[in-house]
Amino acid sequence: GENVEQHPSTLSVQEGDSAVIxxxxxxxxxxxxxxxxxxxxxxxxxxxxIRSNVGEKKDQRIAVTLNKTAKHFSLHITETQPEDSAxxxxxxxxxxxxxxxxxGTKLNVKP
Amino acid sequence: xxxxxxxxxxxxxKEGQNVTLSCEQNLNHDAMYWYRQDPGQGLRLIYYSQIxxxxxxxxxxxxxxxxxEKKESFPxxxxxxQKNPTAxxxxxxxxxxxxxxxxxxxxxxxxxT
Lengths: 111, 113
Known about the structure:
Order of helices and strands of chain B: EEEEEEEEEEE
Largest interface: A-B, 22 and 27 residues
Radius of gyration of chain A: 13 Å
Order of helices and strands of chain A: EEEEEEEEEE
Oligomer: heterodimer
Radius of gyration of chain B: 13 Å
Number of helices of chain B: 0
Distance between the termini of chain A: 40 Å
Helix content of chain B: under 10%
């Protein structure tokens, strides 16, 4: 199956700083690249996604960049707020409609 | 997501018993998935189904079974063969087409003692 790695596994930033989480994947046939946010004890929720033919997508303070050649995509959060504290997962989708999740990045935003 | 209902929220069983987790969706999605999440870890795929009456094993299918007799329902049975069944189980669905995300239920926390 697909090998998905996320870095870093934990990230601590000061409120107002930026945070970047990187996801690398192995399957070159992956064609859809979402990021999910999971708060403690709750379900993962989609925060942003990007299609394979797009290099960058932005939604207010959140952006995702994709480098298909290098097989990685990254989540960028600017002007972080305490409510951004959560675990973030990347989950590239392959051409068999399977989503493989990374091991997660725990983001802590200090007030 | 109000469109996917998992029940119950908490489930307790004795070792050696089979247990079935319910997942129902009213989103008219073709694809449904079961994931397992252990504390501090990512989600691992157990089974998925792209269409009624068809399903495929994920990466950790041993000790689990599923059925997909109706489009809206995808129950998961945790059998006594599953060596370490205590975990948080998440059901998800998707339209099944390119660029369509997963929508998750609220999960079932299973504890086996």
